[in-house]
Amino acid sequence: MKILIIEDDATLNRLLVLHLTHKGYETVSALGGVEGLLLATRVQPDLVLLDVMMPVMDGWEVLERLRRESDVPVVLLTAKAMTPDVIHGLKLGADDYIRKPFNLEELDLRIEAVLRRASQG
Known about the structure:
The protein has five helices and five strands, in the order βαβαβαβαβα. It has helices at residues 10-22, 33-43, 59-69, 83-92, 104-120; strands at residues 2-6, 26-30, 47-51, 74-78, 96-99. It has 121 residues and is α/β, with parallel strands linked by helices. Helices cover 51% and strands 20% of the residues. Strand 3 (47-51), helix 3 (59-69) and strand 4 form a beta-alpha-beta unit. Strands 2-1-3-4-5 form a five-stranded parallel beta sheet, sandwiched between helices.
């Protein structure tokens, strides 16, 4: 399974790559939305972990553009934890919404659940 990480915090991005690679996933990462969209088209990931608050192109716009061309599962990872933000993300087509800071075990379980649902659909 291939996971695309789109996260502008370089430290968190590296942590996610290391953690998910250790868990057996193939990982590809981008430090911004524009780069992430290009990678999504090129590598055809099985799941996207997407930060919302990024410069140039935020996660909302990335998600909107992804949804125009793909039904790849998207899990938002964000510090935007207010209920209206969660609702907005889910209405745009996110499959799950994880608030930062998060627990890696919870992240693992949510990724497994989203991938399981995607494989059944």
